[in-house]
Amino acid sequence: MTKALDETRVYWRTASGSAAQGNCVQLARMGPQVAVRDSKNPSAGFLLLRPSEFRALLAEING
Predict the structure, then answer these.
(1) How far apart are CA 21 and CA 15, in angstroms?
(2) Beta bridge partners of 36
(3) Per-residue pLDDT tens over the stretch 1-26
(4) Could you report the per-residue pLDDT of 18-57, keeping only the tens digit for each?
(5) How far apart are CA 12 and CA 62, in angstroms?
(6) Which DSSP letter does residue 60 get?
(7) Is 42 helix (H, G, I), strand (E, B) or coil?
(8) pTM for the full predicted model
(9) Distance between CA 28 and CA 30 in Å, rounded?
(10) 55 half-sphere exposure, CB direction, 13 A CA radius
(11) Which uninterrupted H or E stretch holds 32?
(12) Residue 32 and residue 62: Cα distance in Å, rounded?
């Protein structure tokens, strides 16, 4: 069974350094998972990652 996510209780965080360029993503904790969305288009939805997937994404980004 899939539990519905209550997005009204989610605190989205944006990196302070990304505001100058306007090209950034926002992150939020949703239970044990990490949600990622486009800060310019938050209504387009989000990507939900397990912690291991999020760590792999960060490792790929940081090279």
Answers:
(1) 11
(2) 27, 47
(3) 344 455 567 899 987 666 666 678 89
(4) 666 667 889 999 999 999 998 888 899 999 999 999 999 9
(5) 22
(6) H
(7) helix
(8) 0.75
(9) 6
(10) 3
(11) none
(12) 23
